[in-house]
Design a protein that fits this description.
By secondary structure, this protein is α+β, with helices and mostly antiparallel strands. It has two domains: 57 residues; 95 residues, no CATH class. 58% of the residues lie in helices and 15% in strands. It has five helices and four strands, in the order H-H-H-E-E-H-H-E-E. The protein has a four-stranded antiparallel sheet. A hairpin with a 2-residue loop joins strand 3 and strand 4. Helix 4 packs across helix 5. It is rod-shaped, with a radius of gyration of 35 Å.
Amino acid sequence: MVKNWFKKITGIAELEASAKDANLKRLSEEEALNQLKIETEIAIAAAQKAKEEEDLAKMAPKDRATKKGESWVAVLDTKVNPDNIRNGFFELDWNELFVKELIFNGYGTDADPEEEIVDRWFREIVYNMFADDGLDTTRGAGYINVVPISKGKSEVS
């Protein structure tokens, strides 16, 4: 009791209360600062994700799929010979992941040229379309000529 009375008279009690209040305020401010740091990190991550999505949206479909780790194939062009409807070509484009997927599904090996692997797949697609439509799958349809244009691109005629 005397101790508290002495602290009160000398102003020590007031100083201790002030120190306690200051410490509580410091802890509260540290907590607020930590919360701001977390919110800042979340905002930075969201901004980075938005930037990545924007960059992906600006990419060509093949590049976008490759960047996302997805296989991709597309028909770039189709031409039919006006003098002979049985002749024409499809220009295909693909990424390396598509070829790996074809290899995984039995269309070839890593040692096979990409064009041959894609050609095996394309021939099966055409065969299945004929079969689904009830067309003769053994009829002669000329030949398929695969001309490599560049890496991941061939002209099939």
